[in-house]
């Protein structure tokens, strides 16, 4: 957050090392074109399929700062835009993350935007059409977005409901890139690289992931993420027994049902 009399350093939001990302369906090229055209982007896909890693990779690739906001039901417009705060005997204005991104030409990533209240998400509408401006009502100002500013939102369609879904008027302001779990060969390469494990172990973990995902809608709300497969592989690399690693990194995080946990562990035992 900025302070009067002190120049804000946007460099703190720049990613210094390139995050690894495997292009699965041409999403890198699509996003690059959207960014060049200053087109708002919506990332859709299940939990842990690579949406956040993707946006980190693209921010580095495009050389732009990345400001991430984890949305939640208590998120207010002031949390995004900014507010007046008391500082000593003075009242000072402090920019929120959205205002900072607009002014400094950053990628602003609203993660799981569907969790935010609808009266909060409405404030992004003027930024996500050809106006590209942010009204700051409390200051009576309108801030025009810098040329490199890009608005990106993400959400998990599997969690949407009547109470939690994006308004059509919001959805239709974004181009959408659909994400899913990678193909087995790509996912194996990701798990092997990120967890630092042998190829054959990564192959088995990915096979287990596929079997568990087949249980979706048969007792599981959602399949195991690539992220959790990497966690399991990391534990194995550090000496945790295979069965224990699969239990704590795969079975228990995705379900509280003891019977379903046992079913997942039976799959793990059969594969390993």
Could you characterize the architecture of this molecule?
The chain has 272 residues and is an alpha/beta fold. It has two domains: 169 residues, Rossmann fold; 88 residues. The chain is built from eleven helices and nine strands. The longest helix is centred in the C-terminal third of the chain and has 15 residues. It is elongated, with a radius of gyration of 21 Å. 36% of the residues are buried. The N terminus is likely disordered.
Summarize the structure.
With 272 residues, the chain is of the alpha/beta class. The protein contains 11 helices and 9 strands.
Distance between the termini: 49 Å
CATH topology of the largest domain: Rossmann fold
Backbone shape = elongated
Mean pLDDT: 91
Order of helices and strands: HEHEHEEHEHEEEHEHHHHH
Largest sheet: 5 strands, parallel
CATH superfamily of the largest domain: P-loop containing nucleotide triphosphate hydrolases
Tell me the number of structural domains: 2
- Main sheet: strand order: 2-5-8-1-9
CA-atom Rg in angstroms: 21 Å
CATH architecture of the largest domain: 3-Layer(aba) Sandwich
Class from helix and strand fractions:
alpha/beta
Q: Please report which band the strand proportion falls in: under 5%, 5-15%, 15-25%, 25-35%, 35-45% or over 45%.
A: 15-25%
Oligomeric status? single chain
Q: How many E strands?
A: 9
Low-confidence stretches: 1-6
